[in-house]
């Protein structure tokens, strides 16, 4: 394969094994991926099985650049099923240097609102912004899960640069 294209499945190596993700969107200068649940020792014999695995989260990541520099491995191509960018994203809001709540953004309208505490639905919103390769590896090594990324986690890790 010469160039990454929408629908491509890639793997990224972490210390515990491989994590698989799908390249879902490339528009307005942002590339999105959806990361599938699980860490695997080997490749799949049937990549269509990935379609039955939950998506851990979606995030903006430079797929083409990572592939060009051989930081990720091409595995397979699958047509996209479901959303190609998250409808809503969230980020911790710390304008004054302390945690003030969550900034929820509608990615279509760019409308934003600040909430102190998230609803159960909002806890499933993917992170906003872009991550570099090293930070994505760190998130995967730490078994980052949206449901655990809440007020308590942010307040506990505020001094540990959890708000990157």
How does this model look, in words?
The chain contains 3 helices and 10 strands. Helices cover 13% and strands 35% of the residues. By secondary structure, it is mainly β. A hairpin with a 5-residue loop joins strand 7 and strand 8. It has helices spanning 63-68, 133-141, 151-157, and strands spanning 8-14, 17-27, 30-36, 55-61, 73-77, 88-93, 101-106, 112-115, 126-127, 130-131. It is globular and about 45 Å long. Strands 5-1-2-3-4-10 form a 6-stranded mixed sheet. The chain has a 4-stranded mixed sheet with strand order 8-7-6-9, with no helix packed on it.
Overview in brief:
With 164 residues, the chain is mostly beta strands. 13% of the residues lie in helices and 35% in strands.
Tag the structure with descriptive keywords.
six-stranded mixed sheet; 10 strands; 164 residues; mainly beta; 3 helices; four-stranded mixed sheet
Shape: globular
Q: How many domains, as an integer?
A: 1
Rg result: 16 Å
Strand content: 25-35%
Outline the biggest β-sheet.
6 strands, mixed
Overall mean pLDDT score?
Answer: 89
Helix/strand order: EEEEHEEEEEEHH
Instruction: Describe the strand arrangement of the main beta sheet, using strand numbers.
Output: 5-1-2-3-4-10
User: Distance N terminus to C terminus?
Assistant: 33 Å
How many beta-strand elements? 10
Percent helix among the residues? 10-25%
Question: Unreliable runs, pLDDT <50, ≥5 residues?
Answer: none
């Amino acid at each position: 394969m010469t160039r990454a294209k929408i629908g491509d499945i890639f793997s990224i190596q972490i210390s515990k094994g491989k994590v698989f993700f799908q390249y879902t969107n490339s528009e307005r200068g942002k590339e999105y991926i959806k990361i599938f649940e699980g860490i695997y020792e080997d490749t799949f014999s049937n990549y269509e099985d990935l379609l039955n695995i939950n998506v851990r989260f979606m995030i903006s990541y430079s797929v083409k650049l990572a592939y060009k520099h051989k930081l990720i491995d091409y595995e397979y191509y699958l047509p996209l099923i479901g959303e190609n960018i998250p409808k809503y994203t969230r980020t911790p809001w710390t304008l004054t240097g302390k945690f003030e709540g969550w900034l929820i953004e509608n990615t279509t309208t760019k409308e934003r609102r600040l909430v102190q505490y998230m609803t159960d639905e909002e806890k499933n919103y993917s992170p906003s912004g872009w991550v570099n390769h090293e930070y994505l590896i760190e998130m995967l090594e730490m078994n980052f899960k949206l449901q655990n990324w809440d007020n308590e986690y942010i307040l506990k890790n505020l001094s540990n640069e959890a708000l990157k």
